[in-house]
Design brief:
It is built from 12 helices and 16 strands. It is of the alpha+beta class. The strands form 4 sheets. Strands 1-2-9-8-5-7-6 form a 7-stranded mixed beta sheet. A 5-stranded mixed beta sheet has the order 10-13-14-15-16, with helices on one face. The two termini are 26 Å apart.
């Protein structure tokens, strides 16, 4: 993403718009990448000086600087000293210089010549290595994997993301999409720590009101950054609209995007786990060697007004499917909404694993149809195995949504947008 001084936007009334690049900015992208390629294996400081020279007196200097910022973030820099620690070298050189009372260039050269052979270095090489750990002395070792066209795409995405730094909350409309796209969208919402409330259904589409844990206490820039990081995931959905409410100079402004924008998704794969708790459980389950295969978030349960996506599914070789929902430490309001979803889903083949840190007891789960287990610290796979026997008759003959399916949209409703309720904050 880009720092605020490198963002371009314009305002019309109460509406704010990002300023995307035109095709005539392509030469700048190409020139930035050329300068970077010419400085491979050279110090970062030299590269940055060359990029500043490229800016020159151009009125587009902020565009050039934005290209450079994104490209350098995608490059790799390393120490030129290999396994030698510059801090160790400095300590030895400065200690010897202090002992000899050396001052001046000739005395410094004598100290370098005395220390260099201990590390099989020349004196001048040692001189350069003394401060190799400073950022400006790091060497460019891997070029950014960008074409000029891709760099412009990344730049436009960064401009769109930048407006969300000051977002209070946003509304998403996703409609006429295959179920797999909906599922991945909910996965990313969870992964980025955003809480959300959902209206609608699979047939008509979903309106998702996105909020986050930070908003329960106070508005923070960190919260807006999480929304900005989430935006590339939205681009993977075929048909969508977004409306955000931004806080700018004490004024609330509207910011809108949709799937017809010139933005293109990143190629990065979707996140694997929402938390270390889930990842730890999955890693340890793989080591058990049971006939149950663990799959992550393979099903969406449509609750007609909201959705429920269990964290995991356990699939047996004989076709049985058991779902798992792991509840760690969250805000009490999250617990209330999660319990409501569990009751509405009414899934007898769902194991609910509850952390004792959640400040909830068995009474809170008394009307949940499936088994509930409590754990300390980590969820142990053997705790789950112990209750699978009671669910041995559960089958999954027809999951609500199959990835890549038709989306369940009747012909009479195709092309219709879901109704637009008032824009209000939500959370889940």
């Amino acid at each position: 993403m880009l720092p605020t001084p490198l963002l371009f936007s314009y305002k019309r009334g109460a509406q704010l718009y990002p300023r995307f690049l035109r095709s005539d900015q392509h030469p700048w992208a190409e020139q930035v990448l050329t300068v970077i390629a010419e400085h491979q294996h050279r110090p970062r400081g030299e590269l940055q000086a060359a990029l500043r020279a490229l800016e020159g007196d151009s009125p587009d200097y902020r565009i050039v600087r934005g290209f450079a910022h994104l490209a350098l973030n995608a490059a790799e820099f390393t120490l030129a000293t290999g396994e030698l620690e510059p801090e160790t070298l400095r300590r030895e050189v400065f200690t010897l210089a202090a002992e000899q009372g050396s001052y001046g260039e000739s005395q410094a050269q004598q100290v370098l010549e005395a220390v260099a052979p201990r590390y099989q270095l020349e004196a001048e090489t040692l001189r350069e290595a003394l401060y190799a750990d400073l950022p400006e002395n790091h060497r460019l070792t891997a070029l950014p994997d960008f074409t000029p066209e891709r760099l412009i795409d990344r730049y436009n995405l960064a401009q769109a993301q930048g407006l969300l730094y000051s977002a209070l909350y946003l509304r998403l409309i996703a409609h006429r999409n295959v179920p797999g796209e909906y599922r991945r969208l909910f996965q990313h919402l969870k992964f980025h720590g955003l809480m959300y409330a959902v209206e609608g259904n699979l047939d008509d589409g979903y309106q998702i009101y996105v909020d986050g844990p930070a908003s329960l206490f106070k508005q923070t820039r960190k919260y807006g950054l999480q929304m900005a990081v989430f935006l590339p995931a939205l681009l993977r959905v075929s048909r969508w609209q977004m409306e955000a409410v931004l806080q700018r100079d004490g004024q609330e402004l509207s910011y809108q995007l949709d799937s017809q924008s010139p933005l293109k998704p990143l190629t990065a794969p979707p996140p694997t786990y929402d938390s270390l708790l889930e990842e730890s459980f999955a890693r340890r389950w793989e080591k058990l060697g049971t006939p149950w295969t663990l799959e992550r978030e393979v099903e969406i349960v449509d609750l007609k007004g909201t959705v429920f996506v269990p964290d995991f599914a356990l699939r047996h070789v004989d076709g049985r499917v058991i779902h798992i929902e792991i509840m760690g430490f969250w805000h009490p309001d999250y617990l209330r909404r999660k319990l409501d979803k569990l009751r509405r889903a009414a899934m007898p083949n769902l194991i609910v694993a509850v952390s004792e840190r959640l400040n909830a007891g068995a009474d809170d789960f008394r009307d949940i149809p499936g088994p509930v287990i409590f754990f300390k610290g980590k969820l142990e796979p053997r705790q789950v195995l112990a209750v699978l026997g009671s669910l041995s008759t559960c089958k999954n003959s027809s999951p609500p949504f199959e990835e890549g399916g038709p989306g369940g949209i009747p012909h009479g409703q195709r092309g219709q947008n879901p109704p637009s309720p008032p824009f209000a904050k939500g959370g889940d």
